[in-house]
Give the backbone structure.
Amino acid sequence: MATTPVKDKNMLRICQIMNEDIGHLYASAIQYKQHASLLEGVFTQLEADLKEHADDDLQQAAWLTEKVSFYNEIPSITVAPIISATPSLVSLELLISDLITITNAVNRFRRHLAEITQMGVEFGSVRKFYEEMLDHEEEHLNSFKNFLSPYMKESDPAGDLDSSFTDTQIVDVVKLANIIRG
Ligand SMILES: [Fe+2]
């Protein structure tokens, strides 16, 4: 009987990367679904975007899961930490947490894509998938920022902020603006 070949170091690392992303994609899908349900009737367009994003993330997790299996590794079922709504979390705070999650995903995909690209042509299909995921995530980030931009004008807060926001929410809008501009 032939001895089991030592697994390629890059293949193991790529499975580790994909498993890390599977955990984050499951987490963000759950988070966006929950937040979308709480935004119902508040930010209708954003609610639809979040639902669509959750579906995208689950599909991406499914693709990565099949790829990890293809490389004869066990796909992760560990869900990364989720930022859950609480009774005291108002809609804008939810949006801040979603913005952070999307920004983290963009940064993580960029980092992972760079690492995968260095591994060479052997992992071309994974690299291509990460390029697509990154494009998608950047689109989600841009539409989030576009949506929130009307609430970010600090120079004339009284005029630019929706009068229905409470003082606490206005503070959060400023925090949000700093994150976006950061
Ligand atoms: Fe995503």
Observations:
- The chain has one domain: 6-181.
